[in-house]
Amino acid sequence: MGKRDDLIEKYAADIKDKFGETADMDLLKKVTIGCGPAIYNADASTVSGSDKAELDTVKNNYLIKKLALADDSKLDDAIASVMEKYGKSNRNKYRAVVYYMLCKHFGKASVYK
What single DSSP character describes residue 46? Predict the structure, then answer.
């Protein structure tokens, strides 16, 4: 197994532990690949739930550009919900997991087909 496969396994475990869900491994793999080289960078691989600029980046670059969602308050609500479920005190909110959960929330898995 390569480094990416190891990370995908770690993300799947995180989804199980933090969200109580079994990950759709096919979708999780596609979302992880979609994150590109960011998953290998310690800073870029995580999302700060308390940094407004970071959350705006998730909203603009992922939800609006990648998933083609309209910019409205539902996007902020969904991000806040994922951050809440992930755990405010949890410092390592993996970008691939956040993106995966948002993708599932909005039912946009078809973007990755």
Answer: B
CA-wise closest residue to 59 among 48, 46, 72, 75: 75
* Class of the domain covering 3-112: mainly alpha
Instruction: Write down the pTM of the prediction.
Output: 0.96
Query: For residue range 43-102, what is the model confidence (pLDDT) as tens digits?
Result: 999 999 989 999 999 999 999 999 999 999 999 999 999 999 999 888 889 999 999 999
| DSSP letter assigned to residue 110 | G
Task: Tell me the CA distances in angstroms from 110 to 51, 67, 106, one per residue in order.
Answer: 29, 9, 11
Tokens for 4, please give them: 């990416």
Quick one: 20 exposed, middle or buried, by C-beta within 10 A (0-12, 13-18, 19+)?
Answer: exposed
107 contacts: CB under 8 Å, gap ≥ 6: none
Per domain, the residue ranges of the chain are 3-112
Residue with tokens 């691939």: 96
